[in-house]
Amino acid sequence: MADLATEAAEATEASVDPANWTCPAPLRDQPVIVMGHGGGGALSAELIEQVFAPAYGNPTLAALTDSAVLDLGGARLAFSTDSYVVRPLFFPGGSLGDLAVNGTVNDLAMSGARPAYLSTAFVLEEGVELAVVERIARAIGAAARAADVTVATGDTKVVESGHGDGVYVTTAGVGLVPDGVDIRPQRARPGDAVIVSGPIGLHGVAIMSVREGLEFGIEIASDTAPLAGLVAAMLAVTRDIHVLRDPTRGGLGASLNEIARASGTGVRLRERAVPVPDEVANACGFLGLDPLYVANEGRLVAFVPPQEAEAVLAAMRAHPQGGGAALIGECVEDHPGMVVVATALGGTRVVDLPLGEQLPRIC
């Protein structure tokens, strides 16, 4: 018995030895790719800044916007590409197919462009059911028609069983940027009103509820939707919109940090003004998540000159995709490059750029 007790004690000591611990958060000096590199946070930014930007090295890429604005034959062309690896493939409110269209359409719209054409590239794992592929393809077609874009070209590759995860889709898109429109994160100015187009956090919580089999007493559906029509309605009020961003990976918190750092200004939010649905707040409280960092797929955040804020807000609320639009804060001279929130209790907290992502494989 004494020998058994000694062995148990030694095993316990080994189990609590800090040298044996592993950190669930990805370490920033990792020599290999970790999940956090795809999360839209600090690790993603470092991967781009330290690997891709030096390798490609050109002024167009240096802007690091969701879509590049190119001068081509006298026209201003927006160009974007994105890959979609969401798990599960189908979820309340949408599917991989919807995301593949809406995500790229929205990236183009965030530069003020009118999206026109898309390409699709499928990577299929050997053994995936043809019915699944057809369902995703039909969802892409329906979403493209709803967004008024044409899927003009594409590609298909197949990998061996066990070397993929069913279906991955990459889309690229092009669109035209109207004259007089200059929307980019560097244009944020102190005094700008910060407006979000509707309730946040729905997409991320919808994915997690299905993935983990969680029940919250009500079905939470993704907000995935095309936003080009909403942006056109905003530009009809004024073409002097400074910044647009769709807060997908990393959520609203990551997007605001990217804008603050790119413009060298501060952002101040009012916690009570940020529209977080009760079901999202309850789910995040249960899961230990911050709604500000939960992904969205049908929302945008806008930085608008203060004199235009009320008119833009009214135009957004009159549009189907902006009915829940809210003024949530302002751009400030204080704390340049930082985002802070005035809490409901009268305090202030910093909203930093997340290291990785609370919910991986979300889009």
Automatic annotation (TrEMBL):
SUPFAM superfamilies attached to this UniProt entry: PurM C-terminal domain-like, PurM N-terminal domain-like
Q: Where is the composition biased (Low complexity)?
A: 1-14
Question: What InterPro entries is this protein classified in?
Answer: HypE, PurM-like_C_dom, PurM-like_C_sf, PurM-like_N, PurM-like_N_sf
- In what residue span(s) does the PurM-like C-terminal domain sit? 189-335
Q: The PurM-like N-terminal domain covers which part of the protein?
A: 66-177
Which CDD domains does the record associate with it? HypE
Q: What is this protein called?
A: Hydrogenase expression/formation protein HypE
Instruction: Write down the species.
Output: Streptomyces cellostaticus
